[in-house]
Amino acid sequence: MGAACSTAGRVWYTLSHGTVNEIYCPTIDHPQVRDLKLLITDGETVCHEEKRDLEASTETVRRGGAAQLDTPPRSSVSSPYCRPPRGGRWRTPRRRDAMAQSSSIQPLSDDRDVRRKMVAILRVLSGRDKPLGARALGREIGKLGIELSERQVRYHLQFMDERGLTRVVGNAGRVLTDLGRDELDSALVHEKVGFVAARIDRLAYATSFDLDSGEGEVILNVSRLRAEDLPRALECAKTTMDADLCMSHLVVVAHEGEELGEPVPDGMVAIGTVCSVTLNGVLLHHYIPVSSIYGGLLQVHDGLPLRFVELVSYAGSSIDPLHIFIHSGLTTSWQAATTGSGMVGAGFREIPAAAVDDALAVMERMRECGLGGVMAMGAPSQRLLELPVGMDRVGLVVVAGLTPMAAASEQGIEIDHHALSTTCDYARLTPIDELV
User: Fold this and answer.
1) Model confidence at 359, in pLDDT bands (50, 70, 90)?
2) Domains of the chain (ranges, CATH numbers)
C-alpha cells in the first residue's frame, strides 16, 4: 500500500499485477477506484491488458513513490514504468487530494530476451516441413528451456507475421518464410553457440533404429544438386564409399516434388547419406551415453587415420564444423578415397570406459546392418590421435557422414550440403551399387 509522505494526504493506493488495483479516499477504509490499468492496442489486431498479459515487478523509487515495471508478451510494446517527478514526490493541485500516475511506453524490438524467444520459434519452425500451431510450438520451445504460454506464442507469431518472418497456412498453423530463414541465419551469434551440440543430442534421442528388427529411423545428411549432375555425383560417392570413408553404403535419392526433410525444388534432386550421429543414437538406446566433443579435419595416410589437423568444439560452435571445412575447400576426400591419403571430415567422441565391451558388440551388429563409420577406438583414459581423453573415458574417431558428397563437391559438382538434416525410415535406404 502507498500514500503521500505528508500526513495531511487523504489518498491511499495498492499495487498488484502491474496495476493500481484500488484507491482509497478520504479515509483508508473507503475504496473509490478499482483496477486502474492500461489497455495497449494497435487498434486492429492486438490488445494487451496490463493485468493479464504482462509480467510485472514492483520497485521503490527514491522517496515517496513506487514503480511498476511490466515485461511485454511480444517485442513491439512495453507497458508503464511509473516514477514520481523530480524531488521524489507527486505534485497535486492545492486543497485537492489526488493520485497521479505517469506512464511511458517504450519499444523493445531489440530486447535480447524477446529476440531469444523469436529465434527459438524460428528454430523450431525451421526443423519442420509442416505448419505448426501455437500450442505445438509452445511444447517444442519448452523442450529448449523457454517457457511460453500458448497466448504468448500467439503474440510473438503475430509480430513475426507482420515482419514477414512467418506465414499463416489456414488453420494448420505457421511455416517459416525465406525472410524468416535469413533472419535465423543472421540471429545473434551468442544465441546460436552450442546449437550444433544441442541438435546432435536431440537427433540422437530421436533415432529409433532397432538392431534386432532392422527397422526404425536413422539420421540423414541431405545434399541438394541439379538433376543432371546426379549420375556423376553418385559415381563419386560410390568411389568414396568403396574406400570405407562413409557411415554406410546406403543412400536415399529424392527427386523434384518429393520430400527429404523438406520438398525438393524443381530441377533438383536430394541425396541423403547416413549421418555419423546415428551411431550416437543407436548406442544411446543401448544405454551407452556418447559425448560428441569435436568436429575436425582428419589426415588419412595409407587408408588409416593419422592425426587431426583442425578442430572445432561442438559446444562452442554455431555452425556444423564440416560445413566450414567443405565450403572452405580444406577437405580432399576424393584424393583420400583414390590414393589412400588426404584430408577428410571426422568427429571425435567419448564413451564410458566401462561400456567398451557393450559398445563393441553394438557396433559389430551395426556393421551387419550396413552401418559403420568408426575409424579408430582408443584405450581407457589414453590419448587417441594425439587428443586427450577424459578419466575413465574412451575416445572414438568417426568419419563424417557427408564425406562421400564432399568428394563429389571436390570434383566440381555444385552441391548444397545440409548436415544433421532430418530423420528417415531405414527402409527407404538403398545400396548405392543399385543406383550407379
Assistant:
1) very high
2) 1-108 (2.70.98.10), 112-191 (1.10.10.10), 217-434 (3.30.70.1360)
At 66-81, the pLDDT tens digits run: 555 555 543 333 333 3
- Distance from C-alpha of 191 to C-alpha of 140, rounded to nearest angstrom: 17
Grid cell at residue 31: 475504496
The total number of residues shown for the chain amounts to 436
Question: Tens digit of pLDDT for each residue in 79-93?
Answer: 333 444 444 554 545
Most confident of 41-50, 92-101, 388-397: 388-397
